[in-house]
């Protein structure tokens, strides 16, 4: 019973964050989607393999939700198992930095997406890719020492909030992105093994 109350409280908190509510005058209608990576194989009922072309060449092998969501007010949260290191490059010394990337993908081409990236050094990057043009939108000063953090992207219309463990790290307006989206995970290691769980809550305002 305690777990039910905790989940209800989390949903209420998410609703307030996503809708920007300061009073209970209007109530959101919420739909929740959950997935975990606790098995030995990818859950093909919820995820699919997907190839994303890199802006500087090359192809990323990633996982993407099979379900396409639709809302301009949502929260996407993902808990990291770890941030894997990159594979060593031939002829170079030192340990390459690895990255874990939570992405909200707005089309099949990858030309429109929002990315919240954590490196194996604990440094965050936030990117907005609109019509194929990439812009880093953070202040180059965000980071964490938490070994298995929960990272999130919240949308409120044109405003995007970049979250760490339920707290807002930064906020940025990105205009003219569609309402349809998928959730995508990728990094230098195996995408599904670097993540523990993913949660998507979409909100619709009711009166």
Question: Topology of this protein?
Answer:
Layout: H1 2-19, E1 28-36, E2 47-53, E3 59-65, E4 69-70, E5 73-80, E6 99-105, E7 113-119, E8 124-130, E9 133-136, E10 150-156, E11 159-164, E12 167-173, E13 180-187, E14 195-205
Antiparallel strand pairs: 1-14, 2-3, 3-13, 4-13, 5-10, 5-14, 6-7, 6-13, 7-8, 8-9, 10-11, 11-12
Describe the structure.
The chain has 207 residues and is mostly beta strands. It has one domain: Sandwich (Jelly Rolls), CATH 2.60.120.200. 9% of the residues lie in helices and 47% in strands. It has one helix and 14 strands, in the order αββββββββββββββ. It has one helix at 2-19; strands spanning 28-36, 47-53, 59-65, 69-70, 73-80, 99-105, 113-119, 124-130, 133-136, 150-156, 159-164, 167-173, 180-187, 195-205. Strands 2, 3, 4, 6, 7, 8, 9 and 13 form an eight-stranded antiparallel sheet that branches. Strand 10 and strand 11 form a beta hairpin. The radius of gyration is 17 Å and the shape is globular. The model is unreliable at 1-12 (pLDDT under 50).
Average of pLDDT: 84
Shape: globular
Any idea how many domains?
1
* Number of H- or I-type helical stretches: 1
Q: Remind me, CATH topology?
A: Jelly Rolls
Give me some keywords for this one:
disordered N terminus; mainly beta; single chain; six-stranded antiparallel β-sheet; globular; eight-stranded antiparallel β-sheet; 14 strands; Jelly Rolls; 9% helix; 207 residues
């Amino acid at each position: 019973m305690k777990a039910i109350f905790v989940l209800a409280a989390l949903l209420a908190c998410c609703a307030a964050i996503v809708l920007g509510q300061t009073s209970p005058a209007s109530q959101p209608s919420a739909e929740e989607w959950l997935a975990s990576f606790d098995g030995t194989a990818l859950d093909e009922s919820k995820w699919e393999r997907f190839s994303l072309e890199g802006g500087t060449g090359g192809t990323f092998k990633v996982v993407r939700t099979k379900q396409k969501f639709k809302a301009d007010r949502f929260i996407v949260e993902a808990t990291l198992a770890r941030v894997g290191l990159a594979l060593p490059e031939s002829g170079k010394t030192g340990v390459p930095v690895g990255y874990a990337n939570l992405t909200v993908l707005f089309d099949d081409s990858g030309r429109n997406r929002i990315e919240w990236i954590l490196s194996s050094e604990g440094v965050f990057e936030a990117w907005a890719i609109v019509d194929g043009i990439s812009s880093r939108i953070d202040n180059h000063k965000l980071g964490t020492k938490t070994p298995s953090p929960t990272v999130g992207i919240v949308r409120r219309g044109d405003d995007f909030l970049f979250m760490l463990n339920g707290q807002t790290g930064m906020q940025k307006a990105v205009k003219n992105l569609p309402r349809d989206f998928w959730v995508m995970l990728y990094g230098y290691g195996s995408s599904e093994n670097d993540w523990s769980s993913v949660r998507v809550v979409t909100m619709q305002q009711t009166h």
